[in-house]
Design goal:
Elements lengths: L12 H11 L3 E6 L5 H7 L11 E6 L5 E5 L12 E5 L2 H11 L5 E4 L15 H9 L3 E4 L1 H9 L3 H30 L6 H14 L2 E2 L5 E4 L23 E10 L7 E8 L6 H27 L5 H14 L13 E2 L25 E5 L2 E3 L4 E3 L2 E5 L4 E3 L8 E2 L3
Parallel strand pairs: 1-5, 3-4, 5-6, 10-17
Antiparallel strand pairs: 1-2, 2-3, 7-9, 8-9, 9-10, 11-12, 12-15, 13-14, 15-16
Length: 401
């Protein structure tokens, strides 16, 4: 499928400098080599496919004109950006030029995360961080800056999310109906065949996705990131619990993802064992949603790990703490796993504030040996309101009722 990502709008240097001053940072240093840092390319509006066989640096000071440092054989790499340009060839010249580039600043933000606590942000290699520190600079994390200038959505992106959601909701319910039809007629259909049907519907509706959806019956749905394969895909039969985790975005520039998980039962009455686990997952999901809604409405800061704690505590009280093996949610953007605050106090302790105009999933799950259940919605936060952007599943769907 074609890549729907387009170059970002022209960089707003004044807005970045205002945020740097508010954070008491002396500047933001962007660095790339062989496209290792897609965040830098997104924020600076660079062509992510351009040649990048040599290192480049772009420094935005908290005050004054930006500065560029590029190799002489790729001297045009940053010509689309404002600022004075320096060129280098040898490594000694690079080190001297970098000192000059960073002159006047001591606290420098980079795509760095202490202890790699937020891997999405920790993109600058350790050697480059060491090099900057040798210049007597304090390297600090750009995580909160990235939220504001890469993870926050424009109104147009929000509308693309809603439109993708309407299509994906329709395809999801169509997939459940197709599975039920095959089972009702006694015809075989496998997990991977239903996955392929979903992808065909995506192409027909101009929805794209970096990875195919998860289609899983028990016990495969007890594996949170199960991927059906030709040699291991299970048939979907009467009495099966079917989990669909589906994500996608419009095939248009700068569109953002919509990501949901629903479950259905290939029978007329959902067994009590499934219904019980779903109710616990639903309570954890809704508790986390309500916590975010209340905090945002009151104007209180809320951090990713705090939301995770709400959902996790509810599952712990029900006796299934060890069966909730992943974070409660992830940031959503132009990639399905975006660069804003994750709803995570387990895999990391994400202490970033949830900021306006960002979106994230809420998707607690309980995974047993026999089966697994997850319920996923997307939550968008504006200035004083948080809202679920699509339909909310209240019960497992009885598909043969």
């Amino acid at each position: 499928m074609p890549d729907a990502r387009a170059r970002a709008p022209a960089i707003n240097i004044a807005a970045i400098q205002a945020e740097l001053r508010a954070a008491k940072f002396d500047g933001w240093l962007f660095y790339d080599h062989h496209h290792r840092d897609p965040i830098a390319n997104h924020i600076l509006g660079l062509n992510g496919d351009a040649m990048a066989t040599r290192r480049w640096f772009y420094f935005i000071p908290s005050r004054g004109e930006p500065r560029k440092l590029v190799h002489r054989i790729e001297q045009a790499a940053l010509d689309s950006l404002p600022g004075r340009k320096q060129e280098y060839s040898g490594w000694e010249e690079l080190h001297k030029s970098l000192r000059k580039l960073l002159a006047g600043g001591s606290k420098i933000a980079m795509q760095y995360s202490p202890d790699n606590n937020i891997p999405y942000i920790g993109l600058v290699d350790a050697g480059t961080v060491e090099l900057v520190r040798k210049l007597k600079k304090k390297v600090v994390s750009s995580a909160d800056l990235v939220q504001k200038f890469e993870a926050a959505w424009t109104p147009e992106q929000f509308e693309s999310h809603l439109e993708a959601g309407r299509i994906i909701d329709r395809v999801t319910h169509g997939a459940f109906a197709r599975a039920a039809e095959f089972v009702r007629e006694g015809q075989p259909i496998s997990e991977i065949q239903l996955q392929e049907w979903i992808l065909v519907k995506f192409r027909e509706s101009r929805i794209i996705t970096a990875e195919p959806p998860i289609v899983a019956v028990q016990p495969n749905n007890g594996n949170p990131h199960y991927e059906p394969k030709l040699d291991s895909s299970r048939p979907i039969r009467a009495g099966d619990l079917l989990l669909l985790d589906i994500w996608g975005k419009l095939d248009q520039p700068r569109s953002v993802y919509y990501d949901i998980t629903w479950t259905g039962y290939l029978g007329a009455r959902v067994p009590d064992s499934y219904a019980k686990i779903f109710r616990i997952v639903r309570e954890a999901r809704d508790g986390a949603i309500d916590f975010v809604k209340d905090a945002v409405a009151r104007g209180h800061d809320v951090r990713g790990w705090e939301v995770d704690r709400v959902a996790r505590e509810l599952i712990r009280k029900a006796g299934y703490a060890k069966n909730f093996v992943h974070r409660t949610g992830h940031s959503i953007g132009q990639e399905v796993h975006g660069n804003g605050a994750n709803i995570d106090g387990l895999e990391t302790r994400d202490d970033r504030k949830i900021v306006p105009h960002t979106c994230f999933s809420i998707e607690p799950g309980i995974y047993l040996r026999e089966f697994g259940i997850r319920s996923e919605v997307d939550v968008y936060v504006s200035e004083r309101q948080a809202r679920v952007t699509g339909a909310i599943q209240e019960e497992i769907l009885p598909l043969l009722a």
